[in-house]
Design a protein that fits this description.
By secondary structure, this protein is α/β, with parallel strands linked by helices. It has nine helices and six strands; from the N terminus they run αααααβββββαβααα.
């Protein structure tokens, strides 16, 4: 992707404005200061360039650096409310950018903690939705992102669950009829689900043997694909370390998923551009 300059935010806005249907003017009350396409341009631009940790930092940045582009920026609270109203549209954008026809997919999951486990009893924001889950790093309280990427590290499928959902129970939602091969870790090695995916989608699942298995045969091409499996772990690392996917700032469950979706959308935009 070519290096982005400040003026390219206008190109993003024009592209979005042409893509979206005409925005109807509300029958009552004040019309929004920003058009939906303007706010979407702001969120996408941040995902492509700065990767702010939260909407507060994003708002301060736009107010400071882009006042000439958005001279009528609404007050912060109205800005946040408008972002929340756009969550369905952000989801639609992200779904439209997924590489759903990828024949080869690398799948895994990663924890999205909402707070430290010791504070889970006092955490009220995601109470009743977030759960405890355990991986090789220990216990976590929050959600889990299950994802599949193609060989170019582009997102192909996404599923959010509570942290206690097992990978094997979600893998069916990470493939479709275009998926010929799914590569995962040992959690994807269950024979029942492997047979089910073959019968339903003609998808071959390649996973390393579980530690309880003594013997398992693999061809050279299967071993080559298993050696590429860390690509999905590297993608998760980038999303967390560079794009700040994990957060504890939101004050509602909807706020958490607004954060997750805008981060994933910014990442995917950068990968497909």
């Amino acid at each position: 992707m070519r290096e982005l300059q400040k003026q390219h935010i206008v190109d993003i806005f024009v592209w979005i404005d042409d893509l979206l249907p005409a925005q109807e003017r509300p029958l009552g009350g004040r019309p929004p200061v920003l058009k939906d396409s303007e706010l979407l341009a702001i969120l996408l631009w941040d995902g492509l360039t700065e990767h702010h940790k939260n909407l507060s930092a994003l708002y301060d940045w736009i107010e400071r650096e882009y006042s000439d582009c958005f001279p009528k920026l609404p007050k912060y609270q109205n800005f946040i409310e408008h972002c929340h109203r756009l969550l369905p549209m952000l989801i639609w954008f992200l779904q439209s950018l997924l590489v759903t026809d990828a024949p080869l997919r690398f799948a895994d999951s990663t924890m999205l903690p909402v707070c430290k486990p010791i504070r889970a009893d006092r955490h009220k924001v995601a109470k009743g939705v977030a759960q405890f889950g355990k991986n090789w790093q220990g216990w976590h309280y929050g959600f889990k992102l299950h994802a599949a990427i193609d060989h170019n590290n582009r997102l192909a499928a996404l599923v959010f669950t509570p942290a206690n959902e097992h990978d094997n129970q979600v893998m069916e939602r990470l493939v479709n009829d275009q998926t010929r091969v799914l590569v995962g870790d040992s959690h994807y090695g269950g024979s029942v689900m492997q047979k089910r995916l073959w019968k339903k989608h003609k998808t071959i699942v390649i996973a390393p043997p579980h530690h309880t298995q003594r013997k398992k045969m693999a061809t050279d091409w299967q071993m080559a694909l298993l050696h590429l499996r860390p690509k999905i772990e590297a993608t998760f690392g980038k999303l967390k370390e560079q794009h700040f996917l994990v957060t504890s700032f939101p004050r509602s469950v909807k706020g958490y998923f607004l954060h997750y979706i805008r981060i994933l959308l910014g990442y995917q935009m950068g990968m497909v551009s």
